[in-house]
């Protein structure tokens, strides 16, 4: 006769057998099984009368006394079917408790919903099928872009980001560039380098990074594109965001290859910094494309010539913000007050919008209808120099800004630029490089 016993019951059989054969005392058995001596005696009696079968639970195979009634289960299922058919088990259970005063465990509800087909567990869910697509037909029709964060220098330098521009039709690496972070200014600098070298492609293909797409509530406020998206719009280049990483698999696979080959090549070349790597990357790109690039289906180059001048590109790839000129001929941008030069032409601009251009190298330009305006700076993050502004007729307006900034500074140990602005790591690196060049010249 075969018996179905749990591990706990099997352990009890050995202990109770030892008691029956007088090899173990009931007191010791009670301590071993963590049961009372009275219950041990009861088990011994059952063992002597029925053998090992007497230790098997009589409740095995029978429904629990604490189970929900079939009527209650059907009532819950009907409610879920009517109101919460597309809800998850946790959310549906919350609503059943709040709106219907029905209390049950989330796991029980999950099992019921799975049995009825309302919910599919992650283990049972079928993986999405990503079918391959053909490459585009010609060079420059679609360029996939992505940033790969990795320890590229194997500890010889800080972790950084490699921005990759790869052509979809040929698999050619069009542009590579290392940067501290994956920021708007970095993408602007790299994109400008790309279009100056290759021309303007039809479209860039990216992920849903905040550099490319507004992922929060800005769309509801009327701002419909990011700074990078606005720059591409002015250049007449489309920007397409992929819905999954598999959709832009060309650049994702390239990142994996680069994390192997590029790291080893830089190790052999003795490259230990971002500056050295960026200067050496064109040599690597040429060698990589000779090995792995393929011939496109069409020999036509879809890149369009770059017609914008250098100064126009400077404005396009700058962070642009509109400000209204006050009666005191001042505007405020990034916690800095800019004092526009008082003259008849500028006086006519009071109350009109003017544009602030924040360039990737950290410089600022203020223009109206493309014409630059002369200005001086009053930085609220610095100490007010009374001697420098005492002769200014707009002293009251400037001091009002100063008082406001001082009130804020009292409760803030260290003040910085606005955190809502885009990352300035690229600007800081550009300014540091410029200072190094000036010192070398001197």
| CATH topology description of the domain at 142-214 and 225-292 | Nucleotidyltransferase, domain 5
What is the CATH architecture descriptor of the domain at 142-214 and 225-292? 2-Layer Sandwich
Question: In what range is the share of β-strand residues?
Answer: 5-15%
CATH class of the domain at 142-214 and 225-292: Alpha Beta
Mean pLDDT: 83
Write down the secondary-structure element order: HHHHHHEEEHEHEHHHEEEHEEEEHHH
Over all CA atoms, what is the radius of gyration? 36 Å
List keywords for this structure.
14% strand; single chain; 42% helix; 15 helices; RNaseH-like_sf; Nucleotidyltransferase, domain 5; 442 residues; ISNCY family transposase; four-stranded antiparallel β-sheet; RNaseH_sf; alpha+beta; Integrase_cat-core
Lay out the secondary structure:
Elements: H1 7-20, H2 26-33, H3 37-50, H4 70-83, H5 89-100, H6 106-116, E1 143-150, E2 160-167, E3 173-179, H7 184-198, E4 203-206, H8 227-234, E5 238-241, H9 249-269, H10 274-292, H11 310-316, E6 319-324, E7 330-333, E8 336-340, H12 344-347, E9 353-358, E10 364-368, E11 371-372, E12 375-379, H13 386-389, H14 395-410, H15 425-441
Parallel strand pairs: 1-4, 4-5
Antiparallel strand pairs: 1-2, 2-3, 6-9, 7-8, 8-12, 9-10, 10-11
């Amino acid at each position: 006769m075969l018996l179905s016993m749990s591990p706990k019951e099997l352990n009890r059989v050995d202990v109770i057998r030892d008691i029956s054969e007088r090899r173990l005392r009931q007191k010791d058995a009670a301590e071993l099984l963590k049961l009372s001596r009275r219950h041990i005696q009861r088990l011994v009696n059952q063992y002597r009368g029925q053998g090992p079968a007497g230790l098997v639970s009589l409740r095995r195979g029978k429904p629990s006394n604490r189970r929900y009634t079939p009527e209650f289960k059907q009532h819950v299922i009907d409610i879920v079917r009517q109101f919460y058919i597309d809800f998850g088990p946790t959310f549906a259970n919350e609503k059943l408790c709040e709106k219907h005063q029905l209390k049950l465990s989330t796991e029980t509800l999950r099992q019921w919903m799975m049995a009825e087909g309302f919910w599919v567990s992650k283990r049972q869910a079928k993986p999405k099928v990503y079918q391959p697509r053909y490459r585009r037909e010609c060079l420059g029709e679609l360029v996939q872009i992505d940033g790969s964060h990795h320890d590229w220098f194997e500890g010889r330098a800080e972790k950084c980001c490699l921005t990759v521009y790869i052509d979809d039709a040929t698999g050619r690496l069009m542009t590579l560039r290392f940067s501290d972070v994956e920021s708007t200014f970095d993408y602007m600098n790299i994109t400008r380098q790309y279009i100056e070298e290759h021309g303007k492609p039809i479209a860039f293909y990216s992920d849903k990074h905040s550099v490319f797409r507004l992922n929060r509530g800005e769309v509801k406020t009327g701002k419909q594109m990011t700074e990078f998206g606005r720059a591409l719009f002015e250049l007449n280049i489309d920007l397409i965001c992929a819905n999954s990483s598999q959709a832009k698999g060309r650049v994702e696979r390239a990142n994996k290859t680069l994390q192997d080959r590029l790291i080893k090549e830089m190790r052999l070349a003795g490259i230990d910094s971002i500056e050295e790597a960026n200067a050496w990357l064109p040599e690597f790109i040429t060698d990589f494309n000779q090995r792995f690039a393929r011939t496109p289906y069409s020999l036509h180059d879809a890149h369009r010539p770059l017609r914008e001048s250098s100064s126009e590109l400077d404005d396009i790839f700058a962070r642009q913000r509109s400000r209204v000129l006050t009666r005191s001929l001042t505007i405020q941008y990034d916690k800095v007050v800019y004092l526009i030069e008082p003259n008849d032409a500028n006086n006519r601009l009071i109350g009109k919008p003017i544009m602030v251009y924040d360039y990737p190298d950290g410089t600022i330009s203020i223009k109206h209808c493309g014409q630059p305006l002369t200005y001086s700076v009053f930085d609220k993050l610095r100490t007010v120099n009374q001697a420098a502004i005492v002769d200014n007729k707009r002293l009251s307006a400037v001091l009002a800004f100063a008082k406001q900034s001082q009130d804020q500074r009292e409760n803030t140990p260290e003040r910085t630029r606005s955190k809502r602005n885009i990352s300035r790591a690229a600007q800081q690196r550009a300014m540091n490089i410029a200072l190094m060049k000036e010192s070398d010249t001197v």
